[in-house]
Write a structure and sequence with these properties.
The structure holds 2 protein chains of 2 kinds. In chain A, strand 9 (209-214) and strand 10 form a beta hairpin. Chain A has helices spanning 44-51, 74-84, 100-110, 115-128, 144-156, 174-189, 201-204; strands at residues 2-12, 17-28, 33-37, 59-64, 67-68, 85-89, 162-166, 193-197, 209-214, 217-223. Chain A starts with a strand and ends with a strand. Chain A is built from 7 helices and 10 strands. By secondary structure, chain B is an alpha+beta fold. In chain B, the strands form 4 sheets. In chain B, strands 14, 17, 18, 19, 20, 21 and 22 form a 7-stranded mixed beta sheet that branches. A 6-stranded mixed beta barrel of chain B has the order 3-4-9-6-8-7. Classes of the chains: A alpha/beta, B alpha+beta.
Chain lengths: 226, 804
């Protein structure tokens, strides 16, 4: 599904150039659950942003479903993104002014789904995430775990083929964290590819494969026994 | 379009109450001010616009002054209209109008003094598009016929049908008029408000006006309006008329002006009423635009400030698949919602404030369906403006890269910051100009108030009686003298004098002439001089001082022999030392007169206009009796008793009469009423502008403090004091105000210099006006900024650092 080769990304300030990704190469197959680990500043988040088509690499190749997408402009990336990729963030990133229902509905609006159909799909996913009873609440009225469930619901409502999770349990206690991880496992088992950045060895154990990074490069890669 | 856009917009406004409040208040005040001023301006511009008014011109007289012609008189000759009609094919009709400023109507036991009437040609009704409610114009072509306004007819006749009934009128002498028609009351928006129209033919039969009836090129006491054929070129006709010399006098000429221009742009001697001021309307329009712009700039500033806080939301939306156009659309919908809220608020402001404003300007402006339609283009403009104002933050918002937006790492580039700083500078520039304007206007108003006018008008009462019976002149003269003597015997009266007019009375009772032979024998046929009759003790009553000679003596002879002139006239005759002109003789009106005294120049019309060459002649006059009261009647109660005593005295001598009185000082000050109002309006609008600009500054400061929160935290951790932080934060804004001030000085100086040119006597643009306006602006900036920066400076640094 994803194949990156010699991927490069630099950050330039006026005087210094920092290398965030240094000729990084790996691939992810459809249906895989991959965890990316490494110390702060190793380039994990940069990588995730590029994989999520939020950012453009400075060098190398990025094939998404066999198509070279490196060098796509924002409009093209946005188009590809909204149909194929869902995001889960450490800080949930829900819109405070929208209710649970409206937050989850957001991606469907942007992909142009009709209101009646939207209602059906949102309700289905809320049901699945077990937060249907909270549909008319605003994010501030929810616990962290509930908020992250809403965020996951929003990420999956569009039925994306790929979910990118950036430390999804980072702001949660272990009970809530485990619940979220179980959700991700369920999604993965239903066929969704998942790439997750995490600091937690515990969470990483849920994945099929762990890629460890250091200074923008891949250090090790170990496949876990299922 | 999705309903969600509106939902989120309103939720956002509700959540950010302070931000919404500031924005809506600022924007709505700007819009309300703009609406009110627009109503006022369109009211002022709507004068004399009736069906066909674009083809109606007024004829007026130009007089030569030096080598150029200047507008000298709003009134023309009774031959003017017919002559133009005959000589120029494009002139299809004309109407002459002899104005009567006040006439007393008597019907049964009703005695009604009615201002604003005229004798007019029957063509009046065609030209001014005034249809009759009742009656027939063909009856109006006979002498002694009158057409009344609806309300006057009602006052005189009540429920009875007034048609073909008679009514007596007094104006110098009495006459009987037959009512042949009723016209609807005239709107306020005409320069020539009339309550009754008497047929022009009545001039010949009415004793008091007979002298005006003979067609001639000598007495220009008539307003003339001409109607021209469609597609007449105004300039071409004006050229023809100004170069024609009907009256065979090279020193004057006829000229024309559009009737629609009279109210705002004509300020000639002998106008029917004090007209509006084009420059005042222009200034107010500028102020309205400035205030509207200020509130828009505010809105832009505040929204961009706020957009920073919303970067995360934009990031989420982008990640969720929003396209740029969708984000811009949402932002525009939000600004539209805010604009609509502000518009509704503004309309509430207008409804609440309009009566107060009306009271203040003495108009009756309404926000109705008919004139709202005239406001539609403005509304469209405002709407567009608000969209534009929403567009800028929208573009900034949607431009955020999603990755950075999500992390809240939006550091607005310095160029955007400069735009914002630029906007603040523009706001303060405009505000400082308004402050300078306010200071200059009020300084000028005080100057006019405090300036000595060369006469003492306090405690002087002008009595003007109307005797409602025809008595011979000789009897009237004797009775008036009895009244005068009786007045002198009253304990509270210091002095009594009769005069045709007095300072502050306007042009109406002042005669103007050309053609005088100076003492050295030169004949001056160019300069207009003005004059009026007064009795010798008039000078004492109003305390006009003599620089040479003295007042003429009381004399019984009917022949005009002695005059008093003012300094200006003496200079015009070539006498720099007034002593030299005493007992010299001048010839005018076929009489030879001796100059017995030269008075110090006094202001007959207030300080807006130049002192005119003036003579006061010893003719008999019974127009006004001036009474100088002594100070003991100074209390309100004392004043009322005195007035009652004077009234009953008058009634005992003239049983069948009305007595009107006015206080000279109040009447004189009334001339400045419009200027005082303008000054106050200027102050109010300036205060508003300052308030709006301060709101904007408040917004920018809160943004700056937000941006520099981490910096402030670090500085505090490393030992900076609250005061040092304040200095750091306030410095930038003071710099902006100083820049605005530097640009505002020359602009403000130029604008106010132009404004002052309207006045013949003006205050100077002192340096302290500019210094004070700078101090005010900087103080306002400091106070506004400090509200936010103090908060930032005293905040716990640990908190600031944590959020990073």
């Amino acid at each position: 599904m994803i194949q990156i080769t010699d991927l490069e990304k630099f950050y330039k300030t006026e005087e210094v150039q920092t290398i965030a990704l240094n000729k990084l190469s790996f691939g992810v197959k459809e249906g895989e659950f991959v965890a990316i680990m490494g110390p702060s500043g190793c380039g994990k988040s940069t990588l995730l942003n590029i994989l999520g088509l939020l950012d453009d690499p400075d060098g190398g190749s990025f094939k998404f479903n066999g198509t070279e997408v490196a060098g796509y402009n924002e409009r093209k990336r946005s188009e590809l993104r909204k149909h194929n990729i869902g995001f889960v963030f450490q800080s949930f990133n829900l819109i405070d002014e929208l209710t649970v229902f409206e937050n989850v509905e957001l991606p469907l609006i942007y992909t142009g789904v009709k209101p009646a159909e939207r209602k059906k799909q949102v309700e289905a996913v809320l049901e699945k995430m077990q937060i249907m009873h909270r549909r008319n609440h605003f994010p501030q009225q929810l616990s962290g775990g509930q908020q992250q469930r809403v965020a996951v619901a929003r990420a999956v409502v569009n039925k994306p083929k790929l979910i990118l999770a950036d430390e999804p349990t980072g702001n949660l206690d272990s009970t809530n964290g485990n619940e979220v991880m179980d959700l991700l496992i369920d999604l993965n088992e239903a066929g969704t590819t998942i790439i997750m950045v995490t600091h937690s060895e515990h969470d990483a154990k849920y994945s099929h494969r762990i890629i460890r990074m250091m200074d923008g490069q891949k250090v090790t890669e170990n496949v876990l026994e299922m | 379009m999705n309903l969600l856009y509106f939902k989120i917009a309103f939720r956002y406004l509700l959540k950010n109450k302070l931000y919404s409040f500031i924005n809506i208040i600022g924007l709505s005040l700007g819009i309300a001010t703009f609406i009110i001023i627009s109503l006022y301006v369109s009211y002022e511009k709507s004068y004399d616009s009736f069906v066909g008014s674009d083809t109606v011109y007024r004829v007026y007289m130009d007089y030569i002054k030096g080598d150029i012609f200047e507008a000298g008189d709003a009134q023309t000759y009774n031959l003017t209209g017919p002559t133009l009609n005959e000589q120029f094919p494009e002139v299809v009709d004309n109407v002459r109008l002899y104005r009567l400023d006040k006439v007393t109507f008597v019907k049964g036991d009703k005695i009604i003094e009615q201002p604003n009437g005229a004798l007019v040609d029957a063509s009046y009704f065609d030209i001014f598009d005034t249809p009759l409610l009742q009656g027939d114009i063909s009856n109006f072509k006979k002498p002694n016929t009158v057409i009344l306004s609806e309300s006057l007819a009602e006052k005189l006749f009540g429920d009875y049908d007034p048609l073909l009934k008679t009514v007596s009128v007094f104006y110098g002498s009495d006459t009987l008029l037959k009512v042949v028609g009723i016209f609807p009351d005239m709107p306020e928006t005409t320069h020539m408000k009339l309550n009754y129209l008497i047929s022009f033919e009545t001039l010949e039969t009415w004793e008091a006006l007979k002298s005006q009836a003979k067609l001639n090129w000598n007495q220009n006491n008539f307003f003339t309006y001409i109607k021209v054929s469609k597609h007449t070129n105004f300039e071409a006709l004006q050229d023809k008329i100004t170069s024609a010399d009907f009256e065979n006098d090279p020193d004057e000429r006829h000229n024309i002006e559009r009737i629609t221009d009279i109210h705002l742009y004509s300020n000639k001697p002998y106008e029917a009423e004090t007209n509006g001021s084009g420059s005042r309307v222009k200034f107010l329009t500028i102020i309205a635009i400035i205030i509207l712009l200020l509130s828009w700039l505010n809105y832009i500033n505040l929204s961009t400030v706020k957009s920073l806080e919303r970067s995360r939301e934009v990031g989420i939306r982008k990640v969720a698949g929003a396209q740029r156009s969708q984000l811009i659309l949402q932002s525009l919908i939000e600004s539209m919602c805010l604009f609509l809220l502000a518009l509704v608020t503004a309309i509430i402001w207008v409804i609440v404030l309009l009566p107060i404003f009306n009271d203040f300007v003495g108009k009756s402006l309404i926000l109705g369906v008919s004139n709202s339609r005239a406001l539609l283009p403005f509304a469209g403009l405002m709407f567009l403006g608000s969209l534009l104002a929403g567009f800028y933050p929208a573009v900034i918002l949607s431009n955020f890269s999603p990755v950075k937006a999500l992390k809240g790492k939006i550091v607005t580039s310095s160029s955007k910051l400069n735009i914002r700083k630029g906007l603040i500078t523009v706001q303060f520039f405009a505000t400082i100009i308004l402050i300078i304007g306010t200071l200059v206007v009020s300084k000028q108003n005080n100057f006019l108030k405090e300036q000595s006018i060369g006469a003492e008008l306090s405690q002087v009462l002008a009595l003007k009686g109307e005797v409602l019976e025809t008595i011979p002149d000789s009897t009237l003269a004797v009775k008036i003298k009895v009244f005068e003597n009786e007045l002198k015997n009253l304990s509270f009266v210091n002095e009594v004098a009769r005069t045709a007019t007095y300072p502050g009375d306007g042009y109406d009772n002042l005669s103007s002439s050309v053609g005088i032979e100076y003492p050295d024998g030169t004949l001056d046929e160019r300069q207009i001089f003005y004059g009026y009759a007064a009795r010798p003790n008039y000078f004492k009553v109003v305390d006009i001082k003599f620089v040479a000679g003295e007042a003429f003596k009381e004399r019984t002879g009917k022949q005009l022999e002695n005059i008093v002139i003012n300094e200006k006239f003496a200079q015009q005759m070539g006498y720099s030392n007034p002593e030299d002109i005493i007992n010299q003789q001048v010839k005018f009106w076929g009489e030879t007169c001796t100059i017995t005294g030269v008075i110090r120049d006094y202001h007959h019309f207030g300080l807006k206009s130049e002192v005119l060459p003036l003579m006061i002649f010893e003719h008999q006059t019974y127009d006004n009796v001036l009474v100088k009261l002594n100070t003991s009647s100074g209390t309100v109660a004392g004043m009322q008793t005195s007035l009652d005593e004077i009234k009953s005295l008058y009634k005992s001598i003239f049983p069948n009469s009305i007595l009107n009185y006015s206080f000279l000082d109040k009447k004189f000050e009334a001339q400045y009423a419009e200027d005082q109002k303008f000054g106050t309006a200027f102050q109010i609008f300036t205060a508003l502008a300052i308030f709006i600009a301060a709101l904007g500054l408040f917004g920018l400061t809160s943004y700056m403090c937000l941006q520099r929160r981490k910096e402030i935290g670090i500085r505090k951790v490393t030992g900076a004091s609250v005061f040092q932080i304040l200095k750091l934060l306030n410095k930038d804004f003071v710099k902006l105000v100083v820049i605005a001030f530097i640009i505002a000085i020359p602009v403000g100086w130029y604008i106010m210099k132009t404004w002052l040119q309207e006045f013949a006597y003006k205050t100077d643009l002192s340096w302290w006006i500019f210094a004070l306006s700078a101090i005010i602006a900087i103080l306002i900036a400091l106070i506004t900024v400090s509200i936010q920066s103090v908060k930032a400076a005293i905040a716990n640094p640990v908190k600031c650092l944590k959020t990073e």
